[in-house]
Task: structure prediction
Amino acid sequence: MFGFVTASLEELTEAQKGRYKAVYCGICRAIGKQEGPVCRLALQYDMAFLALLLMSLYEPEEQSGQNRCLRHPVKPNVWVDNEYIRYAARMNVVLACFKAKDDWADEGKTSARIMARRFGRHEAEIRAEYPRQCAAMEASIARLSRLEAENCADPDRMANAFGELMAELMVYREDLWAESLRVLGFHLGRFIYLADAAMDLAQDKKHGRYNPWLALGRAEDAEQYLVLAMAACTDAFERLPLVQDKEILDNILYSGVWLAYRANEKESRKENQDGPL
Result:
């Protein structure tokens, strides 16, 4: 479900690429220190957006350094660390835990069971630290599973369920900016869910899996849904007093989020052109 909220690297300067990578490496490092090296396998670039957004909003003091790791054993990589980096790391791990549990329950995947047990070792600790976020994740995933079982033909209901998850994830603390962050997260979550469903449409149809566009009976309006969701997301985003790393955040929301969707569209058109007449 993730993999959409990433930067368009070709449009970033070298300095911006370095900053973006340092945040990502910082989250990876934080997961390794807090939950152990195996949990790094679940790391998503989407969490770099979460960390950059909160860092830009609250401008915390940062620590930085560089070191080698198992994934990059030759050249040391620069990392940054602060409380929002560590928060993004925690949210990444608990999301991976809930996702693995859901896959295990729905599809009986052995790999999901193994990962659920791995991540589950840290779930109680993260729940105690972030009860609001964890409760929202659990409730949203359960709601999505229930609606899927009902073959829900309303993409809005499905997207709203995932939007509610993302809304709480974006809010680090209840303060002046909480409402704007919730609105941003809600519509970003809607975009992620609907874009993922649109991209999975052909495979879900082939394998007889649930997809809200299949249940609805048409997918022609998918892009209109996506445009409206991202417009509402960026409207809330622009209301936040962001300066630090604003250009990277702009890149992600105005360009990067569309990369996977556009690439899938291009591939689909190519397949249709190359297919039998």
Remarks:
- DSSP finds 13 helices and two strands in the chain.
